[in-house]
Amino acid sequence: MTWGIIAVLAVGLLLTYIIWQETRSHLRWRELVAQGNVWAIHELVSGEIERWHRMRPPTGTPLPLWGGVQTVELVATGHDHIQVACGTEGEYRMVGARREQVATPLDAAIRLAAKVIEMVMYDIPEVKVGVVRVDVYSTFSSPTGSTEQGCILTTTASRDVVNAIDWDFSTPREILDSLSARYELDELGVGRPVDPGPPLEDEPVELSMPPEVRRRRGRSHRPNEG
Description:
Structural class: alpha+beta
Low-confidence stretches: 7-24
Mean pLDDT: 83
Strand order of the largest sheet: 1-2-5-6
Number of helices: 7
Number of strands: 8
Shape: elongated
Radius of gyration: 23 Å
Distance between the termini: 49 Å
Number of domains: 1
Order of helices and strands: HHHEEEEHEEHHEEH
C-alpha cells in the first residue's frame, strides 16, 4: 500500500514538473517574440512551416489548396515581418472524355495567398508579427515554347488591415482586394508574370540567439576530453 502511494506521488510530481517546464518554455518564447527577437521568430515560423509540410489536409480544406500550402518556404524574417513564397497551378477535372479547367492559375494563386496570410497571421503559436508578405509562383510558357516559373501574384498584409477582414464570409478575391494584391492580366484576361520587387529585409538570426541557447549549443559541440 505504501509503495503504491509513493508511486502515485512520484508520477504526480513528474507530471507537475513536465507541465511547469512546458509553461516556462512557452512563457520564454512569448517573451522573446514580444521583444522582437528574430532568432525566436525564425525558429517558430520555420518549425510551423515544416509541420504544415507533414500535415494531412485539415477537414474542409481542398486538396489542391493544401498542396499549395505545403509548398510554402520562408524567404525573410524580421523583428516584425515575415516573407514567404509558395506555388500553385490551375485546377482541372474530367468532363466526359476531356479535361476542363475549373480554376485558372491566378484564381488558384488568389485562394492560396489568402489562405497562407491567414495561417501565418493567426496559426503560428506565440508569433504575432505586424507585416506578412506572400509571393505566389506558377508555371508560364516562355517565348521559346519552354516552361518556366514566375511570380503570378504578390501581396503584403499588415495586421491592422487583416484584423478588419471578415474571414468567415469574405471570398479570397475580396480578401486580396482589401490587401491591395498585385497581379497583371494579359489581353485574354489570363494572369501573367509580375516582378515581385525586392524582398523584405532578412535580419540576422544568429546575432539575436538567446544566451541560454548559445550556452547549450556550446556544450553540445564541446569536444570530448580524452
